[in-house]
Amino acid sequence: MARDTSPQCKQCRREDGRGRQKQSEYRVQLREKQKARRYYGVLEKQFRTYYDKASRQPGITGENLLRILECRFDNVLVRLGFAASRRQARQLILHGHWTINGRRVDIPSYQVRENDVIAIKAETGAEGVIRDATELVAQVPAWLQADHDSLTAKVLRKPERAEIAAPVQEQLIVELYSK
């Protein structure tokens, strides 16, 4: 399994963009793509696959790409408040603590669909960690429904662009890949 193990603070500083280098059009587009990849914790090849899938769907490619990224299982757990970060969500999923529609799912990139029911696996040792994370969440997006007492959730529908809080300008990513 591949993953990004480079220093997180260095990546954050790079995204600030406080350099003296000239901002070319290509550089701005590339930085935006890298920012989206880091935000969702996705590697390059998988991100490209998501873009190809989004470009084949009807509608606006950039919005389709963000919708696909937002519907990843690890991201949904963070949005629901069942994990404090995407890294923690990935670990909880990989260790098999979650089920979707009654079946154990241990793939963080699993795409949740409408009417999927997410629940914690019975008698899991991670319940304390998950309950601690639920205290940090302010509110759950409108496209999800969560029950923090029983640690279950339901996907009501696909997210709209206005409901996606990613700090990304998806049009720049589309321009970069369409060259």
Number of helices: 8
Tell me the series of helices and strands, N- to C-terminal: HHHHHHEEEHEEH
Number of strands: 5
Helix content range: 40-55%
Structural class: alpha+beta
Basic shape? globular
Biggest beta sheet summary: 5 strands, antiparallel
Q: Strands of the largest sheet, in order across it? A: 2-1-3-5-4
Describe the structure.
The protein is α+β, with helices and mostly antiparallel strands and 179 residues long. It contains eight helices and five strands, in the order ααααααβββαββα. It has helices at 8-16, 25-40, 44-56, 61-70, 73-80, 86-94, 127-134, 170-177; strands spanning 98-100, 103-104, 117-120, 144-147, 152-155. Strands 2-1-3-5-4 form a five-stranded antiparallel β-sheet, covered by helices on one side. A hairpin with a 4-residue loop joins strand 4 and strand 5 (152-155). The longest helix is centred in the first third of the chain and has 16 residues, at 25-40. The mean pLDDT is 87.
Features:
single chain, 179 residues, alpha+beta, 8 helices, 5 strands, 45% helix, 9% strand
Record the SSE blueprint:
Elements: H1 8-16, H2 25-40, H3 44-56, H4 61-70, H5 73-80, H6 86-94, E1 98-100, E2 103-104, E3 117-120, H7 127-134, E4 144-147, E5 152-155, H8 170-177
Antiparallel strand pairs: 1-2, 1-3, 3-5, 4-5
Helix pairs in contact: 2-8, 3-4, 4-8, 5-6
Short summary of the structure?
This protein is α+β, with helices and mostly antiparallel strands.
